[in-house]
Specification:
Blueprint: E1 18-19, E2 22-29, E3 32-39, H1 41-48, E4 65-67, H2 73-81, E5 84-85, E6 87-90, E7 93-96, H3 112-129, H4 139-158
Parallel strand pairs: 1-5
Antiparallel strand pairs: 2-3, 2-4, 6-7
Helix pairs in contact: 3-4
Length: 174
């Protein structure tokens, strides 16, 4: 395992979705249909980019793909439990069995929905706190800074992006 400067293990798996199902990809070009055999990774990445915080890729249909072969339920479950993204053919089309990530067994980031929500919320925190960065420290400014973050996190919780939160602001100033 790779560790950071504090000795904490870096869970690089929270950034990895590994698709194990080869697929036929149908693409409509100007001249007609073409079919290629590829990894489902590109189609899955396209799906991930359209998932809103609070949602998951689980049970989502991947359009324009057909699996090269179908896996038995026991294999699908075993691969999913190991952190792989597996596709399953259902009546509604080729769907993602579960939005798993290739994380450590003790990770909070077992599912891509967690990574999407955390990435979104942290991005919002960075955006809304930007006006406070580089300014002098005062009691009033720290209170406003705290309230800004609190309101954003409260909104993320109300929207179902996160289940709860806790934070502290530390100041090096007077």
């Amino acid at each position: 395992p790779i560790t950071d400067s504090s000795g904490v293990i870096i869970d690089i798996g929270k950034y990895l979705s590994i698709s194990v199902t080869p697929v036929y990809i149908t693409s409509e070009n100007y001249s007609g249909n073409t079919v290629n055999i590829r990894s489902a990774s590109a189609a899955y990445a396209g799906l991930v980019s359209n998932i809103t915080p609070g949602d998951s890729t689980t049970n989502q249909v991947l359009p324009n793909v057909s699996p090269l072969f179908d896996l038995k339920r026991a294999k699908i479950e075993a691969l999913s439990a190991a952190g792989y993204v597996v596709l399953e053919t259902r009546n509604k089309g080729v769907t993602v069995y579960s939005g798993d990530l290739a994380t450590q067994s003790v990770s909070d980031y077992d599912y891509i929905s967690t990574a999407i929500a955390v990435t979104y919320v942290l991005g919002r925190i960075r955006e809304i706190t930007d006006p406070y960065i580089g300014r002098g420290v005062s009691t009033v400014l720290m209170a406003a800074f705290h309230n800004t973050i609190d309101m954003e996190l409260r909104g993320a919780m109300s929207a179902g992006y996160i289940n709860g939160y806790e934070f502290n602001l530390l100041s090096n100033g007077p």
